[in-house]
Design brief:
mainly alpha; de novo design (two linked rop proteins); 59% helix; 0% strand; globular
Length: 109
């Protein structure tokens, strides 16, 4: 098991918490078609918070549960900063959690 797994698992919980606190957590899943986008961050079918909830968190959970290799890089904060450029205060907690996630991914390769 990668020694970063516990810290990453904790960070994923913090990302979920921040999505919920901001009111960006959906109770109903997007359609299968929307979830099957091949575009980066599913920009053509999902809002960024939906991608985080329904794609990113699910994939990362699968990686941790199945002891799969972690990604070599992460640029999620960069995308969040573009998406939330006009909502800096509202997205501060989420961006902070995503920054820490990015740091954990690139930290100990």
């Amino acid at each position: 098991m990668d020694p970063r797994f516990p810290a990453i698992a904790e960070q994923l919980l913090l990302i979920e918490r921040e999505l919920r606190l901001a009111g960006w957590w959906d109770e109903v899943s997007p359609s299968a078609e929307a979830l099957s986008s091949v575009e980066p961050f599913s920009v053509d079918t999902l809002d960024f918070h939906q991608w985080l909830q329904w794609i990113f968190l699910g994939r990362m959970k699968q990686i941790l549960e199945q002891d799969l290799p972690l990604p070599n890089a992460s640029g999620i904060l960069e995308m969040a900063e573009m998406v939330y450029a006009d909502r800096l205060q509202e997205s501060l907690g989420l961006r902070s959690a995503l920054k820490k996630f990015d740091q954990l991914i690139v930290g100990a390769r």
